[in-house]
Amino acid sequence: MNYEILGNKDGFPIVFGHGWARDHRDFIPVAELLGDRAKLVLLDLPGFGASPRPEAAWDTQDYAKATRDMLEQELGLTRYIWVGHSFGGRVGLRMAQMSDSPVAHLFVVAGAGVPREVPLTQKWRGKLRSWQFKRKKAAASSEEDIIALEKQFGSADYVASRESGLRDIFIKAVQENQTDQLASITCPTTFLYGANDTETPPEIGKKMHALVPNSTYLECPEYDHLTILSRGRHQMTLMLKEALQELGE
């Protein structure tokens, strides 16, 4: 697993896990603001950035276990703050659910993990689109036709997952539901969302906040799924500094 270490090499560790189809560079702006305040470990999760994909079709539990083991065995880290954006938030939730969790404070930034509340009309519209896609796919005569259909009916991440060779992992990730496991998280948890995020809207963060016992929910107006990382970097940095103080670091 590729990673970059910045900041104070002897400081308390903060580990950053990026979103789907992203890499460790998303967190460099936050790392620069933190400076030498902590030991900053920026990961390329398997299948992204410079890290090769897993041989099997991993789910987020597999990602969590592999990441925990790598951090402990390769870097000697057994306790740290986890900051996860989007997909990295899903992985962080899994790590925090472990009975021997290494997560001292969990930050979920625009993360998912529970299903959205979808109006009945939208559900039926989705079922209709799915039926249309399957029918047209069955009638497709070439790979090019199938790719064109995926671009017409699928999300940008779904389409890109074919090119990256991660389609099997992507499907597992978007179909998972961590609702029943969230109550087992005992570490302090912060949910940070952008009010204009349409990929993982605030309703998801509020729903998870209600399920995680020791949690806080914060919402930044005017930010979306990605600007929460750039324009929201000052808010993230302030929260991380406060978490370090609470941990006595």
Low-confidence runs (pLDDT<50, min 5 residues)?
none
Helical content stands at: 40-55%
Strand content: 15-25%
Rg from Cα: 19 Å
Strand order in space, largest sheet: 1-3-2-4-5-6-7
Question: What is the H-and-E element order?
Answer: EEHEHEHEHHHHEHEHH
| Shape descriptor | globular
Total helix count? 10
Please give the alpha-carbon distance between the first and last residues: 27 Å
Mean pLDDT: 91
Structural class: alpha/beta
Give a quick account of the main beta sheet: strands, pairing sense, barrel closure.
7 strands, mixed
**Number of strand segments:** 7
Give the secondary structure arrangement, pairings included.
Layout: E1 3-7, E2 13-17, H1 28-34, E3 39-43, H2 60-75, E4 80-85, H3 87-97, E5 103-109, H4 120-139, H5 143-153, H6 156-164, H7 167-175, E6 189-194, H8 202-211, E7 215-220, H9 227-230, H10 233-246
Parallel strand pairs: 2-3, 2-4, 4-5, 5-6, 6-7
Antiparallel strand pairs: 1-3
Features of the shown structure:
249 residues, alpha/beta, seven-stranded mixed sheet, 10 helices, 7 strands, 45% helix, 16% strand, globular
Short recap of the structure:
The chain is an alpha/beta fold.
What do you see in this structure?
It is a single chain. The chain is an alpha/beta fold and 249 residues long. Helix content is 45%, strand content 16%. It is built from ten helices and seven strands. The protein has helices spanning 28-34, 60-75, 87-97, 120-139, 143-153, 156-164, 167-175, 202-211, 227-230, 233-246; strands at 3-7, 13-17, 39-43, 80-85, 103-109, 189-194, 215-220. Strands 1-3-2-4-5-6-7 form a seven-stranded mixed β-sheet, sandwiched between helices. α2 crosses α3, α4 (120-139) packs antiparallel against α5 (143-153) and α6 runs antiparallel to α7 (167-175). The chain is globular. The mean pLDDT is 91.
